Write a sequence for this structure.
């Protein structure tokens, strides 16, 4: 017998609403320093045979992801609901099946609409760096742009 | 100036039905030897900064993808419609948001329902091998399983 664990690879995992068979509902992240609200994570694909992972994040109405940046990119496909995203200094309304590209070292955050959850797929490299949080100076610089400040305050 | 082309990375590309801004509608594949029917391809994410690509395939009612296998894996998320997939010797009905995992060197094919298109996202490694088509012997072996034979003949 090979002593390397064989990955479990069920051919088909059914969706049931926005939950999936054999996929655990997890907290968004473990980092206690990061500010975020009302968001869950499900890892849909993660396998030693795949160079990337596909995760599903769901943000409750009024919730938001962490404002952060990192070397690795995010490739996001919205699945449900509506909200707004910040990528660099761009603020965009997003709706189902829209695509969002987060380039390396670009500040980004996702916010659900006040009255509707926002669910999205996010593809990332399996091997990736840890996110960096903004310093007070970074935040001050971001806030120099009025529309970015409005986004950060949940006023968009 | 750096003479390496800077990738174009629009932060946001809106979905319009099952077409996307700045995404070209392409033929499914160029290989003339492969048997397939009524299927298109849109590459949603492909970037030198990403280890994987995310593509959207749409199969018209009654259409099907190529029966093939390869070293690289497929990580599929159904977006619209309904149909059936073959993975190894498993035949499964699929519906929106279901997940399909195709392990290395596993025969696979996707078929749309007779009366409904099937659209799905497929995540693959950016660096990957070319697909292999079945030999007559491979086909005979697959057909030994009655439910696989029914799938291959479009009778499921």
């Amino acid at each position: 017998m090979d002593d390397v664990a064989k990955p479990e690879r069920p051919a088909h995992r059914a969706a049931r609403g926005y939950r999936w068979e054999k996929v655990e509902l997890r907290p968004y992240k473990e980092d206690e320093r990061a500010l975020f609200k009302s968001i869950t994570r499900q890892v849909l694909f993660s396998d030693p045979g795949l160079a990337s992972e596909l995760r599903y994040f769901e943000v409750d109405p009024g919730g938001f992801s962490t404002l952060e940046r990192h070397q690795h990119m995010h490739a996001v496909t919205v699945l449900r609901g509506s909200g707004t995203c910040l990528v660099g200094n761009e603020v965009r309304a997003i709706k189902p099946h829209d695509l969002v590209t987060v380039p390396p070292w670009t500040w980004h955050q996702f916010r659900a609409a006040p009255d509707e959850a926002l669910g999205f797929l996010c593809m990332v490299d399996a091997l990736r760096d840890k996110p960096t949080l903004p310093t007070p100076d970074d935040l001050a610089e971001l806030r120099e742009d009025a529309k970015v400040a409005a986004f950060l305050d949940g006023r968009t």
Notes: The longest strand of chain B covers residues 52-64. Chain B touches chain A at residues 9-15, 18, 20, 23, 44-45, 47, 49-52, 54, 72-73, 75, 77-79, 85, 87-88, 90, 92, 94-104, 121, 123, 125-127 (CB under 8 Å). Residues 78 and 98 of chain B are 5 Å apart (CA to CA). Chain B has two helices and twelve strands.
